[in-house]
Amino acid sequence: MASETRPFLKMNGLGNDFVVWDARQQPLRLSRDAIAKLGDRKSGIGFDQMITVEWSSLGVDAFMRIHNRDGGEVSACGNATRCIGRLLMEEAAKDVVTIETSAGLLHAFEAAGPRSVTVDMGKPRLEWDQIPLAEEFADTRAIELQIGPIDDPILHTPAAVSMGNPHAIFWVDDVEAYDLERVGPLLEHHPIFPEGANISLAHVFDENQIRVRVWERGVGLTLACGTAACAVGVAAARDGKTGRKTTVHLPGGPIVIEWRESDHHVLMTGTTEVEFEGEVDLETLSWRKTGPGDEPREAGAAS
Is 16 annotated for ligand binding? Predict the structure, then answer.
């Protein structure tokens, strides 16, 4: 019997990259090991997250299932939501779609600029037991946590926010001055975070301008993380470091975050890209490209 092949899209939002499967007509379930093998950047396709688009039990445009590169399933991914929102809007010729996720319903809108999408990420969760944290903190703007010597810690007192997944934000003077590849795993798995955490280093370098590097839970260093950008924007506004609308500069590019005052929802706006089309043999996990992606942008084009 011939092995089954399935088509996929390779997409990214500011370099945060995904393999996207359409499983609405034919269900797809891959083992954790198979996902990790496909996600390997040397031997597989390589990605930060694997996204499976499924029918929504709530009757909205689609359900988005998210797995990190290590094969673990997670509830939220902001950049992926923008990418899936774009695909669904193009497919249905609509300018707004609703996407069901394990973290709740998210709404995606067309935004100004080529391939740009805004996602309403809902309200941030700011209470210690909502994030969640293992200990009670009355104020999650700066929790008691440090790494390194007690009298001279490397990093300390992060803000904690949940955007459907837990985030810790350390305010620093220089985001490049720390070996995030070394301290990221220690902080991700710190006992204070019972579900692990995404770790961000953030620096406000100008009015409403924040530079950020992210160690993503279950992924590692990443060029961009949409929920981390949202969490940083919220944490900055809560602490009076910025206003409620900021531009977060990630290694993959800028993303605009607005923590709306009227309803406290977080809006995230940024670009999306289809890198290429491909197909995978589900038995051998071998894969090949079958088609091109988006046309290259013109130099100086708006983003």
Answer: yes
- Say if residue 303's pLDDT is above 50: no
Beta strand pairing call for 16-22 and 49-54? parallel
Is 217 marked within a binding site? yes
Our measurement of the distance from residue 81's CA atom to the centroid of its chain's CA atoms, rounded to an integer in Å, reads 8
In sequence order, the β-bridge partners of residue 17 are 12
Active site residues: 77, 225
Count how many residues are written for the chain: 303
Q: How far apart are CA 148 and CA 296, in angstroms?
A: 45
Q: Structure pTM? A: 0.90
The CATH number for 167's domain is 3.10.310.10
Q: What is the pLDDT of residues 60-96, one digit of tens each?
A: 999 999 999 999 999 889 999 999 999 999 999 999 9
* Residue 102 in domain: yes
Whether residues 251 and 197 share a domain: the answer is yes
* 78 known ligand binder: yes
- Whether residue 12 is annotated as binding a ligand: the answer is no
Q: Which residues contact 288 (CB under 8 A, 6 or more apart)?
A: 278, 279
**41 in a known ligand binding site:** no
Separation of alpha carbons 20 and 290, rounded Å: 14
DSSP 8-state symbol, 177: G
Facing residues of 66 across strands? 51, 74
- Looking at the structure, do residues 187 and 287 belong to the same domain, yes or no? no
Closest by alpha carbon to 236, among 214, 210, 206?
210
Kindly report the backbone phi and psi dihedral angles of residue 227, in degrees, each rounded to the nearest multiple of 5, phi listed first. -70, -30
How far, CA to CA in Å, does 16 sit from each of 63, 215, 276? 20, 12, 15
Question: Which domain, by its residues, includes 203?
Answer: 146-264
In a domain, 159, yes or no: yes
